[in-house]
Specification:
Largest sheet: none
Pfam families: GT87
Strand content: under 5%
Mean pLDDT: 91
Protein name: Glycosyltransferase 87 family protein
Distance between the termini: 42 Å
Membrane topology: Multi-pass membrane protein
Subcellular location: Cell membrane
Main location: membrane
Structural class: mainly alpha
Number of strands: 0
Oligomer: single chain
């Protein structure tokens, strides 16, 4: 009897070859698309990331540096700048194509992970790649996704890292570690730790804290002065990230500042709204997690991050990919297929419309919006809240089993 080891399996080798071809093809298409779309002259956030890596390479002060032409500072933890050193060390075109290819592949990964097994069971193996490619291309029409691509933002990568990490089996090696790493790159995923606490995922919580501490340790080991400065002063400076009332800030804080500007009631109201909504989100996310609806639980928790953060730029809302899938599944479970399809078209269609940009913005023109201008100007918040309410209503049909409550 002949035994073939997995390492020498022709199927595995063929799979790796297909992945390599797919990545190469994606990179070629990205390069062509960037040229057609004139992205080589833009990608402002990628330029900031590369500036952070370049500053470290030249031994300069990370948090005093400003991007030439725009004056934008580096606002992320030191580990993020360390991770960007490879992109700073290569020519701009190489960095752009590499970074954008990673983001595009993350879109594919988000769809592949978010869509349930029941969906894939209706599609033949040969057609699955075509479906994923189509979904990835169509996703570029979504306002948060396209904003992430054209700015060269990191959101798609962080979202994919969190989702792919936490949907793994509870006994998966170092599950939760990559969540911790994302927090060490950009602090906004920090509330995801609360999901691990309320669902008693102590092992994943330990790994997440280990991942975060590992990024901090790397920072202090390589750039101790910059790390000390960040964790003791820069982290508290909210003015480094831009105008709070700007329409691109789709958070409770942005909404309240557009109504009251810097009035005394804005800050305490933001704290109260964030606390109440955060508790409601935790309750709903826990309910979905215990019903073994992991993607939905994670997507629901992402709403707390988006609403409660001081700044949630519209490109942070790439979480709408798994959130929309979860919403369609919930509607289908309770009211059937036709309402579910209609809901999906409306949900994703509203983000395709990009209505937050229909109204006057910049230079504090948001402070003078009429009631009717405020509706499209806050449309991400409105659509997200409707999705939350519908997911709360449809959660009543979930099974009571505690499949997700394992350490």
């Amino acid at each position: 009897m002949t035994v073939t080891t997995p390492a020498s399996s022709p199927a595995r080798s063929d799979g790796r070859r297909r992945v390599a071809i797919a990545v190469a093809a994606c990179a070629a298409l990205v390069a062509l698309g960037a040229w057609i779309g004139s992205l080589y002259g833009g990608m402002i956030d990628l330029r900031v990331y590369r500036m952070g890596g370049s500053v470290l390479l030249h031994g300069q002060a990370l948090y005093d540096a400003k991007l030439p032409g725009s004056g934008l500072p580096f606002t992320y933890p030191p580990f993020a700048a360390i991770a960007m050193v490879p992109l700073a060390a290569v020519p701009w075109g190489v960095a752009l194509v590499t970074w954008t290819t990673i983001s595009v592949l993350c879109i594919t990964a988000l769809w592949r992970t978010s869509l349930p097994k029941t969906f894939w069971s209706f599609i033949s193996q040969r057609k699955r790649t075509a479906v994923l490619v189509a979904l990835t291309v169509l996703s570029l029409l979504l306002e948060p996704v396209w904003q992430t691509i054209q700015f060269g933002q990191i959101n798609l990568l962080l979202t994919a890292m969190i989702l792919l990490d936490l949907v793994r089996p509870n006994n998966a090696r170092l599950r939760g570690f990559w969540l911790g790493v994302t927090i060490g790159i950009k602090l906004t995923p920090l509330p995801f730790l609360a999901l691990l606490v309320v669902t008693k995922q102590w092992r994943a919580l330990r790994n997440a804290l280990f991942g975060l501490l590992a990024t901090m340790a790397v920072g202090f080991a390589l750039v101790p002065h910059q790390s000390w400065r960040y964790w003791t002063s820069v982290i508290l400076d909210a003015n480094r990230v831009g105008g709070i009332a700007y329409t691109g800030n789709q958070s409770f804080n942005g909404f309240l500042h557009r109504i009251g500007n810097n009035a005394g009631w804005v800050q305490p109201t933001w704290f109260l709204l964030s606390a109440v909504f955060g508790l409601l989100v935790l309750w709903l996310a826990r309910r979905y997690w215990l019903a073994d609806e992991r993607v939905t639980a994670i997507a629901v928790l992402a709403l707390a991050v988006l609403y409660a953060s001081p700044i949630s730029w519209s490109h942070h809302w790439v979480w709408i990919i798994p959130l929309g899938v979860s919403l369609i599944r919930g509607i289908n479970r309770v009211w059937g297929l036709n309402p579910a399809v209609a809901t999906g078209v409306l949900f994703y269609g509203l983000f395709v419309l990009r209505s937050i940009w229909w109204v006057p913005y910049r230079d504090d023109r948001e402070l003078d919006w009429s009631f009717w201008q405020a509706i499209p100007g806050n449309s991400h918040l409105i659509v997200g809240m409707i999705a939350f309410i519908l997911l709360a209503v449809t959660s009543r049909s979930l099974p009571k089993a505690s499949a997700g409550e394992q350490q």
